[in-house]
Amino acid sequence: MVWGNELDNISQRKNEESIRVMDTPLVLTYIGADHLPLKMRASKIKKILAEHKEMDVNVLKRLPRAIASPLAIFPSETESGKYLMVLDLAAPNKGNVVLPIELNGSDGTNYEVNVALSAYTKSDEKTLVPKTEWYTNHFENKTGKNITPLYLNEKKLLAGITRTGSNCLILYTTQATSLRIVYQTKLI
Length: 188
Known about the structure:
Helix content is 28%, strand content 24%. The chain is an alpha+beta fold. It has one domain (3-187). Strands 1, 2, 3, 4, 5, 6, 7, 8 and 9 form a nine-stranded mixed β-sheet that branches. Strand 4 and strand 5 form a beta hairpin. Mean pLDDT is 80; it is low at 161-165 and 167-188.
């Protein structure tokens, strides 16, 4: 089945099933991903829709296109071998969707896959207002953890993310010329 159809029928899927989101996009091969299916557990999709009030099924349906052309990819601050993709996709709260991924993981079978671990925005849990400081700190490398992006899409970042209507990166993009971004849509 196609990803969108899978989402429409997610309540009928067993929690332990892995749902194919897409083939691994080229951008992930830049950071070492093998060309494997990119999958997400049905239980995780159900949890996102139940617990992440800033997310909805329409946002999830647009994940494949956004994953193929992300704004940035960062290594995880907490787990080796995992990454955070900041997508050019705004949730209804106007926050950019963040997609944690694991390369060369398992889908619960004997097959190796790349795993989409979740999807959410960095936002206040009560008000759902996007936490622009998280995005700004990562893009300006002010996390205090020396987290350097592995990939930046300069063209999208400098354009101000106007297509999605997102406002999370405005602080970053309005300062972009002074930050001297030199990563024209390529591996850093």
